[in-house]
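Backbone Fold Data
Goal — fold tokens
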Amino acid sequence: MDALIWLQASRDSDIASLQRLLKTGELMAAVSELVHRLQRERGANNLWICSGGTLFSTERHARQQEVSAGLHHFYQALPSATAQPGFSRFCNLIAAALQALAELPLLRQQISQHERDQAAAMAAFNQVIRTLLNLVFEAADTASDPDISRALIALFSFMQGKELAGQERAIGSAGFAARQFTPEQRSQMVALIAAQEQSFTTFREFADSAACESWQPLSQASRDIERLRRIACTGSQYDETGALEWFSLLSERLDQMKTLEDALTATLMQRCREAIKQAQQQAASPVVQSDSNFSLYVCGADWLPGASTLSSDGLAPQLGRSVLSLIGEQSQRLQQQADELASMRASLDERRVIDQAKHWLMQQQGFTEEAAWQALRKSAMNQNKRVLEIAQAVLAVAKTLSN
């Protein structure tokens, strides 16, 4: 067998993998836009419910139309539903997202008919958005190129932080509209603020310097937002305009975040295209550079001049060394990629364990996602342990109970 053929096959496989990542990047851009539009629709519905139907009635319908357009783009960006190796989990997550999106018309009808209160309506929107964010997480977890994987992790972490900010907007709007915050709402606000910081910290670890620089002015909430946060969390007095002021300030911040999120998706697409271009250039170049000092001989053709210098594999010594060098370089590059990906996936695995623990607490204890996170965080602080360790202990208990 010819080693050069397999070396070329390795390069071609790299290109095919990168082209799949480019398609995934296009899907992530569509997911980003759809999530933002869903967040805007959730916000309009939230204020409409909290005001007893007196505010944002027109905005509700406008946001629905925006989501419909975003859905069309999302559907177009979906990959073909064909079996591929290693594609099962991603297909399952797409199916879950499509099922959640299909339930939006019923949710809107229930809200219009006052069959869902504020908390139930927001929980339903949160779940739809969560299924879409799962696609970004899975894409980051399975990306085969370190640079692209970093871009995906940065994008996912930022989108998650932005979603948590959107949930904070919803809970704050409800509290300000009711002219009081319940103890549960205060606890949720504190948990959401802490979880945002965690997500944005991960974002900064994986984002490039340009994205981090763009984030710097947004990283700290404005003085007005901080003032209203203190009011919400401490129960201080505020006037009846608090709900609209809060909603306006948080909406402006979310829109600013979306601008940076668009830049992150653009960076992702750029890295995909650059990686494909580089791989194609390598594939188009001769696998072995021509050299007048040696030739490729066929083993057994001892009548050719120089055949006596062939090694047992039928290659001239210089050519054999060149092939070995190329194979070594390819192996070293692949190993370096594997090491980088392993490090990044360890971070994602930690996040997955924590999410699984949260969801178990939500199912068993009836917690909201924010309350589940707060419970894990409080337990970690009390025991002087990492949240990951507490999450692992929770899952161990869950496994024991299931057995």
Notes: The two ends are 51 Å apart (CA to CA). Residues 329-403 form a domain with the Arc Repressor Mutant, subunit A fold (CATH 1.10.10.10). Confidence is low (pLDDT under 50) at residues 289-323.
